[in-house]
Every structure is written in C-alpha cells, then in structure tokens.
Amino acid sequence: MKKAVFITGASGGIGSAVALRLAKEGYSVACCYHNGEAEINSLKKSLDEIGADCAFYRLDVSDSEQTEKIFGEAAAKFGGFSALVNCAGIALQKLLTDTAPEEFDALTGVNFKGVYNTCRAAIPDMVRNGCGKIVNISSMWGVYGASCEAVYSATKAAVIGLTKALARELAPSGIQVNCVAPGAIDTKMNDNLTADEKADFASEIPMGRFGTPSEIAGAVAFLLGDDSGYITAQVITADGGLT
Fold this sequence. Notes:
The chain has eight helices and seven strands. By secondary structure, the chain is an alpha/beta fold. The protein has a seven-stranded parallel sheet with strand order 3-2-1-4-5-6-7, with helices on both faces. It is 48% helix and 16% strand. Helix 1 (13-24) crosses helix 8 (213-224). It has one domain (4-238): Rossmann fold (3-Layer(aba) Sandwich). The longest helix has 29 residues, at 101-129.
C-alpha cells in the first residue's frame, strides 16, 4: 500500500510542519483544516513547490458526520490511508470556574471528540489491510496538568488515555498508535504571551528555548517510519526537559 496520510489541523503550526515533512518523505497528504486561510494557502504553496501529491479539505473534526464524509472522500481520492495524524486542537486559559459550558463543549469537541471521530473513520480500513499507524498530538499539560488550563489539560490527558487503550486494542491487527506531547512550541497558540512572558517561560526550560513545529514533525515522522516498528502505546513528551 502506498504511503498516504490524513492530517487534521493542517493550517496550524504543527499540522503544517507535519504535512510538509511527510510530503518530503514521499507521503501523499490529505490536509484538513477548519480555519486559517492564509496559513493553508502558504502550506499549499510550499507543497506545490516540492511537487507533493496533496489535497485540502475544510473539516470541523468535532462533527462526526462531516468527518466520516470527508474522510471517505479523501480515502477514495488517495486509495486509502496508511497513516493518520491528529493535530487539530484549540486552547483556553481560564480558571475552571470561569469556563462556560459552551467553552467546555468546544474544547472537548475538537481536542478529544475530534480524535475519536477521525480514528473511528480510519480504523476499519486499517484493520482490513492489517497495518496502519496513528499518531495523536497531545500536550505536556495532558501529562502533568496546567493551572488555569484545567479543561484543556483534561482533553489532552483524554487523548493520551485513548492512545494507550487503542494501541492495545489494535495491536493484534498490526496497527500502531502513539502520541506526541509537545511542550512550549513557537506557534500562534502561544501568541497570547508577551515577549517578556515568553522569555520568562523559556528560562524555565532546561534547553533554554521554545521548540519548533519542525521538531515535533520530526517526532511524528519517526513514529510513522520503519524504525518505530516495535513501538506502540507510547507518549513522546517533547518539551526540552521542562517536565
């Protein structure tokens, strides 16, 4: 089966870096995004420059019916997928008591239900093929928890729990499921921090800096590659040693 990957959150910093890295490694890439037209146009340009086999789909991963429909369309175009990478995610910095029910629903819908929706769409074909790789993007806060980000941390912890359980569920079918938990990465998700706040945060990281989207893409590429053939149910916490 040819290498083809379905990527969510492709307009984000990590998602676009993953799409570009995997395209350079010979994957056909289905890039899904919900918003961020400027970012997705930039990604299209970069993929066109390297002659990538790619397609773009607008997708709200929290919508089960829409996810199933778009995944089916993309699978028909590319002849199925050997890999799924879940990068779609949103953040919220608020006390739990200040988090409105609709904000809770939005966070859980994208960050957790979105992973459930795409996995549910991708798994049947992977089982039939007897192979496949799934990589979910969580967060270091899903491992350790973050003050004023309780709901966000909970959704990312749920992704880790799903990853570990699903890996065991699917291992007999030849499918690997792993997770990358990024730390402070230089993306728009951290644009709410001032320059001084970023500098203070970076000073707490043993490596002394924020990570880059391309470094996270490298971890994803490893987990999808041949060298990770005996690795499943694992969480790579890529945070510069912070935690």
